[in-house]
Automatic annotation (TrEMBL):
It comes from Aquirufa originis. The chain crosses the membrane at residues 20-39. Keywords: Carboxypeptidase, Hydrolase, Membrane, Protease, Transmembrane, Transmembrane helix. It comes from the Bacteria. This is Penicillin-binding protein.
Length: 716
């Protein structure tokens, strides 16, 4: 039997060893080559990319300019906020730093937990300790933004406080500029808003004047500390930014408050889709107040400003457009106000269209056409003046009245009216547009026309920002580029007729429910049927209501337009007479009460019936001369002090009122005008409710008067 051959175990092991060795060597050489590629061949590129990621050139934001009201009150400003971080590396490296850290870390962690209330003290302590162990040079402690007072408080925390003078606490405050509105939601949409200075959702003045407010960016090298934080690179010499300019708006914060309050009252009563109110100064075109409110279930009042309907939402204007139509008629034909118009059964039929009056009026005068807001009367007058062949002439009148082109208003976009050129008119366009249908206008476009009537016929472009300044220097005077017509829109005769009719609307026409004011109102109601989304044509019962006018009637200072879209029905109705005219009067009444220049001078003597009664009132210093010089009452010393005036059976007793400096005055017993004067002269902001004399004030008399504090006063 042959002997079995034994395998060569040693050779087998040797071969396997060499095979394994060769594999390991190949892997090693591959890794070595890869390392060579990374470090030597591609190293410069990777290092460059890393530097670009963690150290790179960044823009430096300029200080954004402020926005002011007409009296210099801040409407929007930039405030510095701070994000809290620290550099744990300054608390390591030697025994002294370690001992200092151990002494104060527990106190710091407890203070942070108590201040931010988002982590426990142990969690803050571990967060700092972990960053310290890993050698990190930056740790974001909390993402919440701190104001200046909170920053000061944080610096009093353990460890931060003990080391702040030696700069070894490691505390880091990253400054972030944020926008702040001192008056909160007042003029919210008009002034505009932005969450931070990089916000893309800005609107209003903040948006339209963004370039001017933003200034010029600087540039510098920054080191990235974490996802949200960059620190200036030591030794870098940055290009410094140029601060933005300050903008001075034409808004009057007191009138703005009056407008917002009155508009809110109207919306609560009639619950429309939205409401608009604009107040313009007649002689200058300055917008003194602008408010838009719409339903918002998330707002405490149920309403808020979500869209600028005054500038962007165009509707069929309705009967307020009859005035430019009648102006064109009067310019063309020079009819007297006594010209008679037969409105028949209150229906005007043309082709397949029928336009109706609210009720038949029969034969009425031209003056009554506007006073009673007759659709039929207006259309017949326009048809008589322009026929069916003078479409171009009527259109050119409207163009002259600035009712065809955009206002080119400062807030963008500036919407253009929707009014087709005559070449595209159908048979109904001329007459239907003459009464405010088949066209679209924003409230501001209509107000600009009515303001021209109040301004003796001279049209002036509305303006909301008067100038831009840097320090005491006026950089841009926007009033210098404001468009002002050098000629009136119409003849003096036509203007006088229009003014008579507008005053008649209030004294004996469709708005006679707001007659009887001391100062007098002139204006025009407008109730237009609305088109309904998804439906063809107009639907009765869905209205867009307006009232446009001016006051005081003899020497107009302010023009106003009120618009409410789709007011809901109540027992009084949903026409402009019931909806927008009362809001107009509430605003006009309250402006008149607070504007001393509008007050009429008292003349003559008190009647015997009044002298036999007992009178008691708080007397404004400016009224003392009137009472004691013109009304035959005993003379008193005029030292500029307020008086408690008491009259009983022709006996006058006066007691001077001492108002302590820098404290809230006692305004109980004063009328609204005097209360506003007393409180606002102390730097306080006032919101009033009711009419008559003040019965209650929210901040007690004698309290320290903090500037811009809000005081609520109740009148009965």
């Amino acid at each position: 039997m042959a002997k079995e051959k034994r395998p060569n175990i040693r050779g087998l092991i040797t071969r396997r060893f060499y095979t394994f060795f060769i594999i390991i060597l190949a892997v090693f050489l591959y890794l070595l080559f890869s390392l060579y590629k990374v470090v030597v061949l591609k190293g410069p590129k990777f290092r460059s990319e890393a530097m670009a990621t963690y150290v790179k050139k960044r823009k430096i934001e300029a200080t954004r300019g402020n926005i002011y009201s007409d009296d210099g009150s801040l409407l929007s400003t930039t405030l510095p906020k701070y994000r809290l971080g620290m550099d744990p590396s300054v608390l390591t490296g030697n025994a002294k730093a370690d001992e200092f850290y151990k002494q104060h870390i527990d106190g710091l962690a407890a203070a942070l937990a108590n201040f931010f209330k988002d982590r426990t003290a142990d969690e803050y302590k571990e967060k700092i300790a972990a960053a310290r162990r890993s050698g990190r040079t930056y740790l974001l402690l909390n993402n919440r933004l701190l104001d200046f007072q909170e920053k000061k408080k944080v610096l009093s925390f353990p460890l931060f406080k003990e080391a702040k003078n030696s700069n070894k606490s490691g505390v880091v405050f990253d400054k972030i500029n944020v926008r702040y509105a001192p008056f909160g939601q007042m003029a919210y949409r008009t002034v505009g808003y932005l969450k931070d200075l990089r916000d893309k959702g800005r609107v209003g003045i903040e948006n339209s004047f963004d370039k001017e407010l933003r200034g010029e960016f600087g540039e510098g090298m920054y080191e990235k500390m974490d996802n949200n934080t960059w620190r200036p690179e030591p030794g870098d010499e940055p290009k410094l930014p140029v601060a933005g300019v300050d903008l001075h708006s034409t808004l009057d914060i007191n009138i703005q408050e009056i407008v917002e309050s009155a508009l809110l009252n109207g919306m609560k009563k009639f619950k429309g889709n939205y409401a608009v109110a604009i107040v313009m100064e007649v002689s200058t075109g300055k917008i003194k107040a602008l408010s838009n409110i719409a339903a918002n279930p998330l707002s405490p009042t149920g309403y808020s400003e979500t869209y600028n309907y005054a500038l962007l939402e165009a509707r069929d204007p309705g009967s307020v457009f009859k005035l430019p139509s009648i102006m064109a008629v009067l310019e063309e034909k020079n009819y007297p106000l006594t010209k008679m118009v037969n409105t028949g059964d209150g229906k005007f039929r043309l082709y397949n269209g029928v336009m109706s009056d609210s009720h038949p009026l029969g034969t009425i005068s031209l003056e009554q056409v506007i006073e009673s807001s007759s659709n039929v009367g207006t259309m017949k007058l326009v048809q008589e003046a322009f026929g069916t062949t003078n479409n171009e002439k009527f259109y050119n009148y409207l163009k002259k009245y600035h009712l065809i082109e955009s206002l080119d208003f400062q807030l963008k976009p500036s919407r253009k009216p929707v009014f087709p050129v005559p070449s595209k008119w159908d048979g109904l366009q001329l007459l239907w547009s003459s009464v405010g249908y088949s066209t679209q206008y924003t409230p501001l476009q209509i107000l600009a026309f009515y303001n021209a009537i109040a301004n003796n016929g001279y049209w002036i472009q509305p303006i909301i920002v008067s100038k831009a300044t840097r320090g005491d220097e006026v950089v841009t005077d926007y009033m210098a580029s404001q468009v002002r017509d050098s000629k009136p829109l119409c003849s003096p005769e036509t203007l006088q007729k229009l003014k008579i009719m507008l005053e008649g609307v209030v004294t004996k026409g469709t708005a006679n429910n707001i007659k009887g004011s001391v100062y007098g109102i002139a204006g025009k109601t407008g109730t237009a049927q609305r088109t309904v989304t998804g439906a063809k044509g107009y639907r009765k019962g869905n209205y867009y209501t307006t009232f446009a006018g001016y006051f005081p009637v003899k020497n107009p200072k302010y023009s106003i337009i009120i618009a409410v879209d789709e007011p809901k029905g109540n027992s009084e109705g949903t026409y402009a007479r019931q909806v927008t005219a009362p809001v107009f009067k509430e605003i006009a009444d309250r402006i008149y009460l607070r504007d001393m220049k509008l007050q009429q001078t008292l003349r003559g003597y008190l009647p015997d019936s009044l002298n036999k009664n007992k009178l008691s009132s708080t007397l404004h210093p400016a009224d003392q001369n009137i009472l004691f010089s013109h009304l035959g009452l005993p003379k008193v010393e005029e030292n500029g002090q307020w008086l408690n005036f008491n009259l009983e059976k022709k006996t006058v007793r006066n007691q001077a009122i001492t108002m302590t400096p820098k404290t809230v005055p006692n305004v109980v017993g004063m009328n609204l005008r005097d209360a506003l004067f007393a409180l606002e002269n102390k730097g306080l902001k006032v919101r009033a409710n009711g009419f008559g004399t003040v019965t209650n004030q929210s901040i007690p008399a004698g309290t320290a008067a903090a500037k811009n504090s809000l005081v609520f006063i109740q009148l009965h």
